[in-house]
Amino acid sequence: MLNANALQVSYGKSRVINGVSLEVGKSDKVCLMGRNGVGKTTLLKSLIGLLAPKEGAITWEGKEITRTRANERSRMGIAYVPQGREIIPMLTVKENLELGAMAHHPKETARLMEEMLEYFPALKEHLPRKGGVLSGGQQQQLAIGRALMSKPKVLFLDEPSEGIQPNVVAEIARTLNRVHEEKSLSVFIVEQNLDFAFKIAERFYVMEKGQIVNSGNTREVSTDTIKKYLTI
Ligand SMILES: Nc1ncnc2c1ncn2[C@@H]1O[C@H](COP(=O)(O)OP(=O)(O)OP(=O)(O)O)[C@@H](O)[C@H]1O
């Protein structure tokens, strides 16, 4: 479904992604692991259209989208939950969720909201509250809910477990697996929390210094092998 081929991404003269190729299939569940600063967020931003690669190509359902803007990729079904969540603190929870449907599916907002609250019932009682007053875990659920309101085919999440209580992290894993199951949603998670990532992902990629250095099936690799890449 989404293919990246030999991507190179730089900030000015500093090259951060150096020849990355990867694939996210239909109804796939993938995690991308690696230490701080190896380029995971940079790679994600280039896949969703926030950073333009210097070299290489990205295709979506067979069509080249390397220079397609993020907004257009969102219309095609590519959604993104950024690191730090980026919910709008002064808008209510309901308004934050509505934003997800506004760009491409405004007429379906009510139906999508109902569906979303099925997936995240904990948000129901907070709908009239300002997003900024929610706990970190609730804000993460809100950010995922908002992304799902855009009816994505693939959801990219940047470190969704960061700074969140273990019970909420487990609930987020269950919900993502449920949406995957019921909607054939593809999920691509950037993570450093191995347990969480492996509760969801069927495949993994590991990055070091801007390159993919290991990949495979999560059931066929020992967690110790992956941990070696994550510890300093
Ligand atoms: N806007 C920017 N301008 C210049 N350099 C940047 C910028 N954003 C990131 N970098 C650099 O690019 C490298 C990769 O950063 P990136 O955030 O992609 O890594 P990461 O693996 O996602 O790390 P983390 O786990 O800390 O989020 C780092 O050396 C970082 O300092």
From TrEMBL:
SUPFAM superfamilies: P-loop containing nucleoside triphosphate hydrolases. One of its GO terms (molecular function) is ATP binding. InterPro entries: AAA+_ATPase (IPR003593), ABC_transporter-like_ATP-bd (IPR003439), ABC_transptr_urea_ATP-bd_UrtE (IPR017780), BCAA_Transport_ATP-bd_LivF (IPR052156), P-loop_NTPase (IPR027417). Transmembrane segments: none annotated. Keywords: Amino-acid transport, ATP-binding, Nucleotide-binding, Transport. Residues 2-232 form the ABC transporter domain. GO terms for biological process: L-amino acid transport. NCBIfam families: urea_trans_UrtE (TIGR03410). Belongs to the ABC transporter superfamily. This is Urea ABC transporter ATP-binding subunit UrtE. It comes from Paenibacillus validus.
